[in-house]
Amino acid sequence: MNVVAQARASLDDQRLTLTVKTDFSEFRDHLSRADGATGVNPAFDPHHSFLSPDASFWISAEDQDGGIASCIAYRTFHTHDVRDLIRTMEIFCEGPCATHTGTMDLVIPEETPHISGLVGFPGGLWVRSDYRGNGLSAHMMRAVRNEALHRYLLDWEVAITFQNITESASMRDIYNFQDVVPCVDGYFPPTQRAERIALQYSSRAHLVRNLAGPGRVHRRPAHGSRLPTGPDGPAMAYRTSPLHRSPRT
Question: Cα–chain-centroid distance for residue 245?
């Protein structure tokens, strides 16, 4: 059984339904009041970033009562060099953000691959307290990557994470990136203090290899339409919400 099928089976066991959404106002509102959430990354907040349905989405895992048990977001960037997006903090905030202005000094090793083209950026992973400790975080990461690979011709995927995440073996397993390198070692404007931050990255080939397997799982048709599974691997079953364009501010 491939990793996508395993994730689907686990979600079925927990009686959770995955819903793909594009209204980031709902995502922001949920995380702003969710128990245990530490706030909303401005990269996924329509008040601060330009989130269009053709370039971003989020997934909620909903229980039988319609409550959100977990969520995760995904967006894309077209860039000549991801270092520029990080240095200028545009990867976190494209619009008005008081704590994400100016530039940062980066310590990304020279031998790190040149990451450019269409770059995916997952974030905002949250799990409700009664569903923690059962592998749901890893399943959500697989789900969001699988959906992204079927929506976009990604060249790379990246994440910017604090040291406590990259030093945790369990968290590295959840994110399952191809490689992790130092990114910032010094003053970080969003927290207004010195931080050690890493760049995690994966090529498209790495993402596909980690989702592909001997079997194939097909998405259920949404709203009476047959959705393609795409050329790069299996697709998980989703319920897809109508598209809503997020406002630009």
Answer: 19
φ, ψ dihedrals at 20, nearest 5°: -90, 130
Torsion angle (degrees, nearest 10) of CA 147, 30, 243, 143: 10
What six digits make up the tokens of 32?
């702003």
pTM over 0.90: no
User: Could you tell me where the beta strands, DSSP code E, fall in the chain?
Assistant: 17-21, 56-62, 68-79, 117-127, 156-162, 179-188, 193-203, 239-240
Radius of gyration of the chain (CA): 17
φ, ψ (nearest 5 deg) of residue 155: -95, -40
**Locate tokens 């959840």: which residue?**
174
Quick check: 214 and 233 in contact, CB under 8 A?
no
Count Cα neighbours of 126 within 13 Å in the Cβ-side half-sphere.
24
Residue 159, SS3 per DSSP: strand
DSSP state of 199: E
Which residues touch 231 (CB under 8 Å, ≥6 apart)? none
Q: What is the pLDDT of residues 15-42, one digit of tens each?
A: 899 999 999 999 999 999 998 888 888 9
Token couple for 133: 């400790």
